[in-house]
């Protein structure tokens, strides 16, 4: 799944080398995918009114569901401190 997310996002941003996807298994059995992008690329991944981010999130959830898994997707904002307990 990480490769899939990276593939999509690298085609949206100006700095594809800065794209990094982290996979975290959560205690509730859910798979969390965190996306980190380079400086200035955050807006391109979020899109107008968040439509691009919502589309990526929908794809991640649908692919996971086909595999019988639960998943969530978040985009990390480098300007904000990381959340302690995501989910």
Task: Please tell me how large the radius of gyration is.
Answer: 13 Å
The number of helical segments is 3
Under CATH at level 1, the class stands as Alpha Beta
Number of strands: 3
As residue ranges, the low-confidence spans are: none
Shape: globular
The total number of structural domains is 1
Q: What is the strand content?
A: 15-25%
- Topology order in helix (H) and strand (E) letters: HEEHHE
Helix content range: 25-40%
**CATH architectural arrangement:** 2-Layer Sandwich
Biggest sheet layout: 3 strands, mixed
Sheet/helix structural class: alpha+beta
How are the secondary structure elements laid out?
Blueprint: H1 2-10, E1 20-25, E2 31-36, H2 42-46, H3 51-66, E3 71-75
Parallel strand pairs: 2-3
Antiparallel strand pairs: 1-2
Keywords for this structure?
87 residues, 3 helices, 3 strands, 3-stranded mixed beta sheet, GMP Synthetase, Chain A, domain 3, alpha+beta, 20% strand, 34% helix
Concise structural overview:
The chain has one domain (2-75): 2-Layer Sandwich (GMP Synthetase, Chain A, domain 3), CATH 3.30.300.
Question: What does this 3D model show about the protein?
Answer:
The protein is α+β, with helices and mostly antiparallel strands and 87 residues long. It has one domain (2-75): K homology (KH) domain (GMP Synthetase, Chain A, domain 3). It is 34% helix and 20% strand. The protein has helices at residues 2-10, 42-46, 51-66; strands spanning 20-25, 31-36, 71-75. It has a 3-stranded mixed beta sheet. A hairpin with a 5-residue loop joins strand 1 (20-25) and strand 2. The chain starts with a helix and ends in a 12-residue tail after the last strand.
